[in-house]
Amino acid sequence: MVVLTLFFSQITLSAATIRVNSDADTNIQDGKLTLREALLIARGRLFRCLSKEEADHIDAMHTLPFLGSNPCVARIVPESLPDECWILVGPLEDSCNGVGDGYADQIDIRVSGTIHVQDTELPSLGLDDSIDGHGITLDGAGVGRPSAPGLSLSPGVTRCAFPPDPPDARNQVRELTIRDFSGDGILAQGATGIFEDLLIFGNRGAGIHLTSGKCPDLDKRLNSHGCILRRNVIHSNGDAGIVIEVDPSFDNPDAHSNTIEQCQIGLQQGEEWPAGDEPHHGNGGPGILLRQTRGNVVGSEDDPSRRNVIAANVGGGIVIEGTNASANSIVGNLIGISATTDTPGGNGKANVILRGGAHDNRIGEIGASNLITSSTVGVLITGAGTSGNHVRANYIGTNYHGQQGLNVLKRFGNGAGVRVEDGASRNVIGGEATGTGTFPPGNVILHNDSAGIEIIGKGTDQNVVEANQIGVYVTGGYIIGSNYEGIVIRDGASNNDVRARNVIGGNRVGIRIEGADAKKNYVNGNYIGIDDSGQRGIGNREDGLLIIDAPETEVRANIISNNGGNGIRVDGAFGTLIGDAKDQGGNTIAGNHLSGILVHRAANTRIRSNSIGRLFANDFGITVDGNSGRTYIGGTEPGEGNVITGNKYAGVRIDGATTVHNTVRGNAIDANGAMGIDLAETGVTANDARDVDAGPNQRLNYPVIGRPSPLHGGVSIPVSFAGAPFIVVTIDLYSSEQCDASGHGEGRRWIASKTATATANGDVELTFRIRPSTLPKTFVLTATATDRAGNTSEFSRCR
After folding, report:
1. Separation between Cα atoms, residue 607 and residue 448, nearest integer Å
2. pLDDT at residue 645 tops 70
3. Beta-strand (E) ranges in 217-291?
4. Which terminus, N or C, of the chain has the lesser number of Cβ atoms within 10 Å?
5. Longest C-alpha distance within the chain, in Å?
6. What is the DSSP secondary structure assignment for residue 306, as one 8-state letter?
7. What are the distances in angstroms from CA 45 to CA 39, 72, 101, 587, 762?
8. d(CA 153, CA 199)
9. What are 254-275's pLDDT values in tens digits?
10. What is the percentage of the chain residues whose pLDDT exceeds 90?
11. How confident is the model at residue 247, as a pLDDT?
12. Which residues are bridge partners to 335 per DSSP?
């Protein structure tokens, strides 16, 4: 047999319809067309005679004389073969109306039931061609070759020579069931297709695999791009449900912009999570894997009906990986939960995973929230180079998705809500804060078994947590849905910023920052234990902010209230800054069950410009204990002093035999239930001769204020101090409207300070000259002493 082979230039091609009317898997001349034969015809690779009956099932043949010369159909030679034997070799010229490689052929399957594919896989579908299965099943259990796909798509000569951009000449695959093949359900190489209304399950590879392909006879390689995957049910496959991957070395390295919508991946059609010991139907890999590809959209930003349901998959819900994986959008999906939002169906490992250098991807958007529930981790961002990703406006750990009333909110927590780890940097969890009391631009993170947000590991730096609701959902009313801890930063994670209107309540601990390598993290502008109106308490059960061994943490401009433990606990840490005189950087710390601030086993803690107890009483304003030293409470520069008022017990309590060198100066300490400054919590500590006693702040003696007298239009106030020989002390003078019940202190207004050196007997005599205009009409005076080592005394007796 001789086949006429013709070469051609770029032409205008007309589509043919090839109707399959047999459910056999054969290639013989029997008057019927099988799917195998139709695929060979569409690629111009049948290479056998067509009978008149077979040709009648190809619409393009009907416009041609069956006998005689036609440029679109090549006669078989020699002449001894029957006149009605024809072979299709593809397009020849602009006027051709035929079938074959280069034509946008439509394969229309007009049989029902199942096609049992035998021995070898089906021929590949050309990227110009389409299949409408009308519900037929392709069963691959009888295919002997390993890794054989159910249906493959690969570039033909025409597509490679003149690749169209979507939506031009897209191939379409619809209404097929593809099951039990040894490879992928669908393997599309270099595709620009539409894949819709498919049921794909039981295959050993992926459900749908969009990847790159090499062109025949041309030095060109194409990546799949511009595909639409719609209304597919993909479950129980051995690998991922859907894989989209790009080879950056191929000729179109920027291939992107695939869309996945209205798919159910990991559950059967309409299935809830199986009850009891019933098997689940998740895919063996991730539900969706986006590898080295950009600009893909999973879900919809503007139409909730186009969301995907992604649940029960073993390798994760959605995985985005690779240094070229960027600008992908995961929006409006149900991930780890069934379509009714009533039944959890968490994916293995994590519901959403970004790894391997994936960058600048979006997980959620305002108006297009994902529901992310019931996995080990809700969103996992991991690995060096994985950066610039934005997780916002999602509901993580709850079924609530903004369309139902609060009464339907259920506990569907993850292990951790969001975890950033192992060197991932510059990611944003949340969104720019605006407004109060409405859905935040950040995330609602509830019910998670460990932390709402975890930031973990060395190199995990410069991540931002902003405007989330963590452990509580506040909108009109409020729902408390506790995480074990709100936010955790540990194990060397540094330079991360928890800022700008996070509402953190209802957790065991609001924020925990831990570890000697977890350096210089920031907690700025949050609501910890209180809603963002500042009016409604939603306290964490223990501490609002817990800093353990983490150096140089900076805490500014937060409202920390109603927590069951301390507002802030600094434990073993060095160089913590709590409050700042610059840019209104002080914290409001009120209504906490223990101390507003507890400094324990810590050094070089600076506490400035805060309001402590002013709105609601803490038990103690500030407690310093446990061998803490070099704590600086307040200061005499403008704005450095704290307002410590209205607390249930002492304003400042310093306790512990070796808790020394703690300085309290320039604060407004007033109206507390016990002493303004209390060393050892024993009431007034009496002065002793030459100040030889030890204890908290060395039990430094307090000054004694003499009788004021008028002097040259002012007031002369003598102050004396008796201590160790040659001690250098600074005396701070304060005024208050009334004296404390103890007769010592407090000091509402700092007036002035003077420093002097004691005599050999330990005596200091000073005189303050004060203008009356600096004093209230009714006042008492009190003073403190601070030695050169930084120990501050209790307040003196009032005068």
Report:
1. 33
2. yes
3. 221-222, 228-230, 233-235, 242-245, 259-261, 264-265, 288-291
4. N
5. 137
6. G
7. 8, 15, 8, 76, 109
8. 17
9. 557 899 999 999 988 766 555 5
10. 65
11. 78
12. 310, 372
